[in-house]
């Protein structure tokens, strides 16, 4: 999101980062997801990040020219042990 004109709202805890993305923006990060989003016109995305740098909530609203919007929110709680995650291989 930060690489695509995101706004950072530091006046709240947790901090909120928001951006309006296009399917091509998403495709530049994840080719498969971006291609699956091609029918969409834009994606409004918000991510809340706590003071430990953890993403604690994600909300997205996907807009379409001729179909109803799709809205989804996921909230992460009860952080325990870190889960190892490897970056995907370069395409």
Structural descriptors:
single chain; 91 residues; mainly beta; 5-stranded antiparallel beta sheet
- SS-derived structural category: mainly beta
Order of helices and strands: EEHHEEE
N-to-C span = 20 Å
Mean pLDDT rating: 88
Shape: globular
What report would you give on this structure?
- By secondary structure, this protein is mainly β.
- Helix content is 12%, strand content 40%.
- The protein is built from two helices and five strands, in the order ββααβββ.
- Strands 1-2-3-4-5 form a five-stranded antiparallel β-sheet.
- The longest helix is centred in the middle third of the chain and has 6 residues, at 31-36.
- The chain is globular and about 40 Å long.
Question: Any chance you could write out the topology, listing elements then pairs?
Answer:
Elements: E1 7-9, E2 15-21, H1 23-27, H2 31-36, E3 40-49, E4 55-64, E5 70-75
Antiparallel strand pairs: 1-2, 2-3, 3-4, 4-5
Quick synopsis:
This protein has 91 residues and is mostly beta strands.
């Amino acid at each position: 999101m930060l690489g695509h004109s995101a706004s950072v709202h530091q006046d709240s805890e947790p901090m909120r980062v928001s951006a309006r993305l296009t399917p091509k923006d998403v495709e530049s990060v994840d080719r498969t997801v971006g291609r699956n989003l091609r029918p969409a016109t834009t994606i409004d995305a918000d991510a809340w990040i706590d003071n430990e740098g953890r993403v604690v909530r994600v909300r997205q609203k996907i807009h379409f020219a001729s179909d109803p919007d799709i809205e989804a929110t996921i909230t992460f709680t009860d952080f325990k042990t870190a889960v190892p995650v490897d970056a995907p291989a370069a395409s």
